[in-house]
Design goal:
single chain; alpha/beta; Rossmann fold; seven-stranded mixed sheet; 41% helix
Length: 235
């Protein structure tokens, strides 16, 4: 059932292909995730079939938004590895760095990857702390983090090289439109330009979207600020 759910979702992504080996790796990761979730809070989604839909297939939609091959990709606030791990398990050649502030989650990703036979790049750090050393180093930065878009934009855009893309994965509803309107200044201030959105669904009646934000100029020096300052007074 797990594999069929993933396949059915990908059919909805313009018949995105997936083979048995890819499905095996992704299902094994789901099993590892749910087993570890019994002793460590990794996800609120506890049903395997819902993990297939809301974590695995959802993460894979990013492959329909741009060509990730040959690109340096950063997954900010990856948690237990979303969207980074499903993308890596679908195509182990992808160059993805997964960043999270919680070292236990990064350790889980590393242990899972070792069990699944894939090589991963990880960082246990806060985005704003490592950004000064990694400004403009990535072609694509993505995130499924729960931070509001104005906060997430400041945390993420400095990592993107000019000509690259920030591609956050968000809900698609009236509230998300308000969130986008509120973040327009942050996007422009950090050197970005919203060029489009890609809408999709993995659950009946629930729409999601990937925002496509191009980096058109360098981010200003001194940004992102410390998280306390960002959350107290977002751009």
């Amino acid at each position: 059932m797990f594999k069929q759910i993933v396949k059915d979702c990908l059919v909805g992504f313009d018949n995105m292909p997936i083979d048995e080996q890819q499905l095996d790796r992704i299902e094994r990761f789901a099993d590892i995730l749910l087993e570890k979730n019994k002793v460590m809070n990794l996800t609120a989604v506890r049903e395997k079939n819902e993990v297939a839909r809301r974590h695995m297939a959802d993460s894979l939609f990013l492959l329909k938004c741009t060509d990730l091959k040959g690109k340096k990709i950063l997954d900010i606030g990856t948690g237990p590895g979303f969207p980074g791990m499903p993308l890596k398990l679908y195509d182990p050649t992808l160059d993805i760095t997964m960043l999270d502030s919680t070292s236990k989650r990064i350790a889980f990703i590393e242990e899972s990857a070792a069990q699944l036979g894939v090589s991963v790049k990880t960082m246990a750090a806060r985005a704003e702390e490592v950004a000064p050393k990694m400004m403009g180093k990535f072609d694509i930065v993505t995130s499924r983090a729960v931070a509001s878009l104005d906060v997430l934009t400041e945390l993420s855009m400095a990592f993107v090289k000019v000509g690259g893309y920030f591609m956050p994965m968000k809900s698609c509803n009236e509230a998300s439109q308000e969130e986008l309107d509120k973040a327009k200044h942050a996007i422009e201030f950090m050197g970005g330009k919203l060029i489009g959105t890609k809408e999709y669904s993995v659950e009946e009646g629930v729409m999601r979207q990937v925002l496509i934000i191009e980096k058109v100029k360098h981010s200003p020096k001194g940004y992102p600020r410390k998280y306390a300052a960002i959350s107290k007074k977002p751009l």
